[in-house]
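Reminder to self: tokens first, then the designed residues, so the page reads top to bottom the way the pipeline ran.
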């Protein structure tokens, strides 16, 4: 919205700043951060009053969770989503189709997560919406997003899969790109959801991955950088940097209250929405494979659950003491903060490796 103030500029005044993505990204970041600080405590108090006993804690999990986390309210993802929405609408170009696509995916998955959280809290049971229904709704959202991306991208990119490191290499998938995009978006949403199990564990890796894709979105949206780095130029994706900046600001505002011991959990409201957003940005920027590197922590968390379930069904035994894998380390005696910080470090390393692929061509 504020972008259009540049129309008042004669080229040499402050209104000209609103043309620049970097300036508006800074504005989006601080707007979302201030939003988080302003509304964080009132939202937590409201959630505590409405939810009573807070998020139900799994009785088959670590015993420390039952003692330390009982009564903590959930649905804190509403704070992040509110900050992102206000900041993005205020600072991004509203005629950009990628901005609206990512917003659509984010808030659709947020709605699915909110429904799930609501059922858990109202029934005081950790089982909310059935997994099949959640997946079905997620795939419907991702179907729309996949078609959306194919429709808005240029003919030389629409329906193509790009590869990291391999310069100018594209694989034409055609209409098969849509189911591929669906798997990326739904898979990332659920991978982040599985990661969200300890105080601060999910939000920081999400911010690290999002920050990395903010850089990627900015680079692939500019012809000068794409020519220098040998990337595929995707017109309009630079505006997604605004969305990412808003996510970082909102994420920091949330982390202020989610740092151990957490005053609020993001819940499925936040984890599904943020995971869906990461997947959607990766699809828009043609960096789906790089997402598997940058978001490698989420991949491992998701695979630990899949492997555990399949192995248990086949043998009746478990590979991990508990899945997702962060609970396995808890069972081994690792402290919660120890796990969280080490996972943050791993996320940062993976992000740097993923960003390195931009130059290795």
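Designed residues (361 positions):
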């Amino acid at each position: 919205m504020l972008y259009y103030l540049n129309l008042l500029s004669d080229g040499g005044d402050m209104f000209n700043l609103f043309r620049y993505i970097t300036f508006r990204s800074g504005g989006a970041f601080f707007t979302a951060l201030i939003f988080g600080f302003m509304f964080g405590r009132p939202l937590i108090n409201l959630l505590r009053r409405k939810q009573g006993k807070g998020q139900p804690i799994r009785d088959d999990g670590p015993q420390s969770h039952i003692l330390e986390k009982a009564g903590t309210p959930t649905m804190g993802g509403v704070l992040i989503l509110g900050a992102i929405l206000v900041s993005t609408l205020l600072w991004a170009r509203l005629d950009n189709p990628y901005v609206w696509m990512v917003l659509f995916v984010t808030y659709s998955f947020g709605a699915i997560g909110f429904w799930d959280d609501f059922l858990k809290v109202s029934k005081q049971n950790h089982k909310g919406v059935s997994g099949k229904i959640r997946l079905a709704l997620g795939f419907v959202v991702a179907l729309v997003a996949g078609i959306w991306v194919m429709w808005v991208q240029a003919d030389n990119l629409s329906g193509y899969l790009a590869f990291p490191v391999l310069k100018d290499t594209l694989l034409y998938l055609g209409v098969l790109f849509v189911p591929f995009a669906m798997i990326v978006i739904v898979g990332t949403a659920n991978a982040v959801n599985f990661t969200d199990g300890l105080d601060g564990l999910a939000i920081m890796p999400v911010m690290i991955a999002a920050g990395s894709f903010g850089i990627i979105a900015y680079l692939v949206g500019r012809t000068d950088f794409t020519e220098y780095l040998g990337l595929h130029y995707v017109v309009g994706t630079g505006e997604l940097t605004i969305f990412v900046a808003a996510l970082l600001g909102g994420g920091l505002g949330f982390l202020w209250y989610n740092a151990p011991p957490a005053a609020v959990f993001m819940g499925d409201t936040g984890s599904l929405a943020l995971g869906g957003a990461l997947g959607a940005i990766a699809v828009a920027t043609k960096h789906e494979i790089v997402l598997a590197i940058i978001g490698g922590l989420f991949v491992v968390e998701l695979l630990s659950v899949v492997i555990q379930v399949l192995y248990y069904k086949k043998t009746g035994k478990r590979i991990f003491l508990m899945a997702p894998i962060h609970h396995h380390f808890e069972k081994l005696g690792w402290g919660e903060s120890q796990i969280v910080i080490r996972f943050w470090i791993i996320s940062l390393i993976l992000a740097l490796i993923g960003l390195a692929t931009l130059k290795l061509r």
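The beta strands are 160-162, 170-172.
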